[in-house]
Structures are given as C-alpha cells and as structure tokens.
Amino acid sequence: MIIDISKIILTKDKTQQYACSLSSDSIDYMHGSFPINNSKPFELSIVNEGGKNLTIRGNTGLDITIPCDRCLTDVDVPFDIVIDKTLRISDDLLISDDGEMTYINEGKLDVDRLLFDEILVDWPSKVLCRHDCEGICPKCGANLNIAPCDCDKSVIDPRMAKFQDVFKEFKEV
Ligand SMILES: [Zn+2]
Ligand SMILES: [Zn+2]
Q: If you measure from the C-alpha of residue 100 to the centroid of ligand 2, how many angstroms do you get, rounded to a whole number?
C-alpha cells in the first residue's frame, strides 16, 4: 500500500493517523518467495515535529510461511513488527539516520517496503517445525518425523566415532 504523506512533511507540528494494510501476499528473501498470512489492518501515526523531524510509529503482526530447515515442512512463523522511525526533514527532503531509506519517495510512503525492512531484520536464522525435528533421511528422503525408515545409517556412525576418538586423544594430552 502506498500512502501520500507529502502534506505532513510540509506541515509543521502536524499529527496524523493513517489506516494501513499490506498489499503484498508474499515476501522475497534470498532466493525464495514466502507466503504472508494473517496480516491485519493497522494504524501508522505520523508526526511532524516542528518541521525538523518526522516520526513514523505503529505496530502490527503477521505470519510468514517458511519451510523447516531439516524436513522442509511449512512452518507459520509469527512476526511482531514495531515501527519506530525518526527521519530528519531538511529542505523538504527526508533523511534517515540509520542509513538507506527506501520506503519514502517523493512524498509517498510505501507501507509494504517499510514493513519488509523490519521483517528482514527479524528473519530467523533457523526455522524448525519443532525443536526435536528428526529431519529427512539423506538416503531415501523419508520424513523421519512421520515414521522411521529402514535405511542403514551406520555409514555415518564410524566417522562420528572417529571424531570422538580424535577428541579423546586431544583431551588426554
Ligand atoms: Zn521439521
Ligand atoms: Zn531412509
């Protein structure tokens, strides 16, 4: 959603509430596109502070469907998004103190962009369907959370044992 905030940028000491919602139903990150669920309408409060600063505040929540890192099952990951931005107004231009600002262009605020910036910062480094997810069998591809497979997994065990031996040797020195 794009909202026109050019008036408030130019109007000293003005406060305005904007009813916002997300237009996108998915978010691109790395090499994937992830569906967005349960995004609700929310309010953004924009304040022109003495013609010097523009603050943008609001919060909302949504879920993003991300596959489990071990078994690839879809997981709905909740995101709590808190928007709290202070931009400097200088010669009717907006300057962000925390680097590049891509969500306002020529007086138009791109609500999706604003939210996506926050989401990407909070993106989890690891997503698991449950903390003890068994993952997928590297041999037959079976989801081991559903049922164990009959594959011989002893191939991996000797190597692990070897590592343990080396570790032990180091310890004894
Ligand atoms: Zn899993
Ligand atoms: Zn298997």
A: 48
Say which residues have a Cβ less than 8 Å from residue 45's Cβ, sequence separation at least 6. Answer: 15, 16, 17, 18, 55, 56, 57, 58
* Helical segments of 38-155, H only: 111-121
Structural domain boundaries of the chain? Answer: 2-121, 134-173
Nearest bound ligand to CA 67? 1
- Rounded Cα gap, residues 167 and 173, in angstroms: 10
Residues 116, 122: Cα–Cα separation, whole Å: 10
pLDDT tens-digit series, residues 117-133: 999 999 999 999 999 99
pTM over 0.90, yes/no: no
How is residue 114 written in tokens? Answer: 């604003």
Say how many Å lie between the CA of residue 135 and the centre of ligand 2. Answer: 11
User: What spatial distance separates the first Cα and last Cα of the chain, rounded to whole Å?
Assistant: 64
Distance CA 169, CA 72 (A): 38
Fill in the amino acid letter for 152. Answer: D
Q: How far apart are CA 123 and CA 4, in angstroms?
A: 29
Q: Tens digit of pLDDT for each residue in 65-97?
A: 999 999 999 999 999 999 999 999 987 677 776
